[in-house]
Specification:
CATH architecture of the largest domain in chain A: 3-Layer(aba) Sandwich
Structural class of chain B: mainly alpha
Shape of chain B: elongated
Largest sheet of chain A: 6 strands, parallel
CATH superfamily of the largest domain in chain A: NAD(P)-binding Rossmann-like Domain
Largest interface: A-B, 16 and 15 residues
Number of helices of chain A: 25
Structural class of chain A: alpha/beta
Radius of gyration of chain B: 16 Å
Strand content of chain A: 5-15%
Shape of chain A: flat
Largest sheet of chain B: none
Number of strands of chain B: 0
Strand order of the largest sheet of chain A: 5-4-3-6-7-8
Strand content of chain B: under 5%
Number of strands of chain A: 17
Helix content of chain B: over 70%
CATH class of the largest domain in chain A: Alpha Beta
Mean pLDDT of chain A: 86
CATH topology of the largest domain in chain A: Rossmann fold
Distance between the termini of chain A: 71 Å
Oligomer: heterodimer
Order of helices and strands of chain B: HHHH
Mean pLDDT of chain B: 89
Low-confidence stretches of chain A: 566-570
Distance between the termini of chain B: 9 Å
């Protein structure tokens, strides 16, 4: 409403003078025509009426020109008309020119865009998520979230980025607007105060910006799930004090993952499965035990050092700063004679693994390649900063690559789309490796290849039949739900990972006797067929009936026409 | 002194005075009501309307509304005049009352407009 008013306001403001000019020229010319005497057919003097004059001026000014009415003009009249033509045509041209300029007016176009966007947001009834900034990380995130059918609103400072996003043609449509992200106005426009706005995601490089956004968002909407990136401990602490729960620290995440891989490879494998990495296809080599060398002692290097210390692994550093390296060597390549010496001094020959963790992808890559030249057996671990360079890293056959952007986007995706899996990972980190080994064996046995991870909530919209059944006072255990739809005697290839009930109580790996209650949330790993079966069972009355009784559900007249097959009753 | 205020005030008050000039006189005697005066009233009213456009304040909106009312009344008066002179068969004298009373309505709107304008001026501290 406010913005459509703005459009009208701009138009009125601009058209004021042209309107005035037209009214004045019209009134002058009309008055002149009325006052100047003319001669009619019989030679009598006559005066034009106001109607005649208005009629004549209307077609004269718009240059239509029907001729001299009602009678042929005298010379005095013609002189006045000549003058009138010039002033009225100027008036019209001025008005039309202003109107044309108005259509191309940048301010008006912006207002139009804003009003269109605001209408879209207003008509958005489904839950949605606001993502700030459009870059590699958020693009990846939008792809993931769109696949889950989530509705997304994007704000970016740069109109070019918005155009780029519009060319991507995400389905469902992603609403995007250009604007200064740190102002409350634009956030309000994007619907931050709406009840169906579920989360706001701010993953900028600048911690300062993220904090500012977190603060503003918190004030604008208390119930919002605010997901912000933070790259230092102080910042994380600061955000926690503000009451922000979901803080994404990419270095911390990588370090956690790294230490998990060192300490508990089974748990690490489960984590990879939860993130749906294709570990069976990629054939990850496990991290070796022995001495590690870390190149680059920035935030990433420090985080990895912590992870190594935690796993009691010996490590040494090469303090390498990408910016300084580029400045002194005037090249983004690591590997001249001096660099060789540095590596050998750091002990590359005896080391089991080398980590390249600088901010520059090319330097990281050349460090690893140089190290491999000196010690061909060394295990290479690289930090990749942007998703752009992924093919280069792949073809260089680096043993393990940590892509910060991907780590961020997959974590945020889980947080938004599958919060239970995030909870599961938290629980997972508390367990020991033996527990992980057992679970991993089960996952492998039940779903011998990559399982699909999905989350379901026992509510009408997600589990129709089951919810109705439970609401009418019946009880149901997980074992019965985990049946194959083709033969109910067989167990489906499905594993229940974690259940969270209405009172936020958690059950990790519930067994088959666990009784499901209404509004429980369940995280499940299953083969694609088992997933389809399960979703059918909990939603479809006929399938649910079959699982309960072993009989086909018959409705209406079929109850009397079709007899039960008796084979089940033996 | 604010030039814009002077111009706006001039046209708003002129619209009312011209309107009154046309309205004043016997209601069914056309000798008392000049078509030139009606024409001037319409033109000045239209100009006053344009001058009031684009004021976002509460008072500005009400002023604009009064002007629009006056415009509609005066334009319908002139349309009635034109119709009775050229289209209707029973002569112009019958329509005099309608035309004059329409302009009387416009006068009311113009008076309200002037009162609002004055009240704003009185309230203003500068």
């Amino acid at each position: 409403m406010e913005h459509s008013n703005n459009i009208l306001w701009i138009i009125i403001r601009r058209m004021r003078t042209p309107f005035l000019v037209i009214i004045i020229t019209f009134s002058i010319t009309i008055l002149g025509l009325v006052l100047i005497p003319g001669v009619d057919n019989q030679g009598h003097t006559y005066y034009m009426s106001f109607f005649d004059a208005f009629y004549f001026v209307s077609f004269m000014a718009s240059t239509i020109g029907f001729g001299e009415v009602p009678y042929e003009f005298t010379y005095a009249q013609r002189m006045w008309v000549l003058f009138s033509i010039y002033i009225s045509v100027i008036g019209w041209f001025y008005a039309i020119g202003t109107l044309v300029a108005l259509i191309q007016d940048q301010k008006l176009l912006t207002e139009l865009k804003i009003s269109k966007f605001s209408k879209k947001i207003k008509s958005l009834k489904e839950p949605f998520v606001i993502i700030l900034g459009y870059n590699h990380t958020t693009k990846e995130l939008i792809h993931r979230l769109s696949q889950d059918g989530k509705r997304i609103v994007v704000i970016d400072r740069d109109q070019e980025k918005i155009d780029e996003l519009e060319l991507e043609n995400f389905i469902p449509e992603v609403y995007a607007i250009q604007g200064d992200i740190t102002t409350p106005d634009i956030l309000r426009l994007a619907g931050i105060t709406k009840r169906n706005c579920k989360a706001i995601i701010s993953l900028f490089d600048s911690d300062f910006k993220n904090t500012k956004i977190a603060l503003i968002s918190k004030l604008l909407n208390k119930n919002l799930n605010i997901i912000v990136k933070s790259t230092t401990k102080e910042q994380t602490e600061h955000l926690k004090n503000l009451g922000i729960k979901n803080i994404i620290d990419p270095f911390h995440l990588v370090s956690n993952r790294f230490s998990l891989a060192l300490k508990a490879p089974n748990l690490w494998t489960i984590e990879m499965i939860i993130f749906e990495h294709n570990i069976y296809i990629h054939e990850y080599k496990p991290l070796p035990k022995g001495k590690y060398i870390i190149c680059g002692y920035g935030r990433m290097g420090k985080a990895l050092k912590e992870a190594l210390d935690e796993a009691n692994t010996e490590s040494s550093f090469i303090d390498l700063k990408s910016a300084a390296h580029k400045a002194t060597k005037k090249s983004t390549i690591f590997g001249d004679a001096e660099d060789y010496k540095t590596l050998i001094e750091a002990g590359v020959k005896e080391a089991k693994a080398i980590v390249a963790a600088t901010k520059d992808d090319l330097i990281n890559l050349t460090i690893l390649l140089t190290a491999r030249k000196i010690n061909p057996d060394i295990y290479t671990i690289g930090r990749e900063n942007t998703l752009d360079d992924i093919t280069v890293f792949n073809s260089a056959k680096i043993d393990r690559v940590y892509i910060l952007e991907e780590v961020i986007s997959e974590h945020v995706h889980r947080l938004v789309s599958m919060p239970l899996s995030y909870l599961f990972l938290k629980e997972l980190h508390k367990q020991d490796d033996e527990w992980g080994k057992e679970l991993l064996a089960r996952i492998r046995k039940k779903t011998n290849y990559q399982p699909e991870i999905f989350e379901i909530r026992v509510v009408k919209s997600q589990a129709n039949a089951l919810t109705d059944y439970l609401k009418s006072g019946n009880s149901m255990n997980l074992g019965l739900l985990a049946r194959s739809l083709s033969n109910r005697e067989k167990r489906a290839q499905i594993i229940f990972l974690i259940i969270k009930n209405r009172k936020e109580q958690i059950t990790l790996i519930p067994d088959d006797n666990f009784e499901v209650k209404v509004s429980d949330r369940i995280l499940i790993a299953a083969t694609p067929e088992a997933k389809d079966d399960f979703i059918s069972i909990v939603n479809n009355y006929n399938d649910f009936y079959y699982i309960l009784t072993g009989k086909e559900y018959k409705f209406g007249i079929f109850k009397y026409l079709v007899k039960d097959e008796k084979k089940d009753e033996k | 002194m604010n030039t814009q205020k002077v111009i706006a005030g001039f046209f708003i008050i002129l619209a009312m005075t011209l309107n009154f000039g046309f309205f004043y006189g016997d209601i069914d005697n056309f000798a008392h009501h000049s078509p030139y005066e009606l024409f001037a009233t319409i033109v000045v009213n239209l100009i006053a309307t344009i001058l009031k456009l684009g004021d976002k304040t509460q008072l500005g909106s009400v002023l604009l509304a009064t002007s629009l009312v006056a415009d509609i009344q005066l334009l319908s008066a002139s349309i009635v005049w034109g119709l009775s002179e050229y289209v209707a068969t029973n002569g112009i004298a019958d329509s005099a009352q309608i035309i004059v009373s329409l302009s009387g309505g416009a006068l009311m709107a113009n008076i309200v407009s002037v009162i609002l304008f004055m009240s704003d001026t009185i309230k203003s501290k500068r």
